[in-house]
Design brief:
The protein is α+β, with helices and mostly antiparallel strands and about 110 residues long. The protein has helices at about 50-55, 75-85, and strands spanning about 10, 15-20, 25-30, 35, 45, 90, 110-114. The protein is about 15% helix and about 20% strand. The radius of gyration is 20 Å and the shape is elongated.
Length: about 110
């Protein structure tokens, strides 16, 4: 991480280099797809008690977001996708959506660190 620039994000091509001995010829294997780095690649989930941790954050550091995920099959799929996207850990059992019929919304508490 560059303190002035932040975290590197973007795409690049990659090639794997193999050699059995440092004096031998190197075999090159370009990867067929670009490697992409996103902010979530720097994140790691943390198991915490959400309410206790949330109250510790200064207002300018806490983030609350509402998503409208019309393209998702159901709320559980939406929760899984958001959790995977951010590479965060669901807190206090909020990763499991109640299965009652007619559930139209769900609050997912996530925790993570860089």
């Amino acid at each position: 991480r560059d303190p002035d620039e932040g975290y590197a994000m973007g795409s690049c091509s990659a090639t794997l280099l193999f050699s059995m001995d440092k004096d031998e010829e190197v075999d090159e294997y370009p990867l067929p797809e670009e490697v992409t780095f996103n902010l979530s690649d720097y994140m790691k989930g943390r198991h915490v008690t959400f309410a206790e941790e949330w109250d510790k954050f200064p207002d300018e550091e806490a983030t609350e977001v509402t998503y409208e995920l019309d393209t998702m099959k159901n709320l559980q799929t939406a929760c899984n996708e958001v959790q995977d996207f951010y590479s965060f850990t669901a807190c206090d059992g909020t990763g499991d959506v109640p299965t009652e019929a007619g559930t139209l919304s769900h609050t997912l508490h996530l925790s993570g660190q860089v």
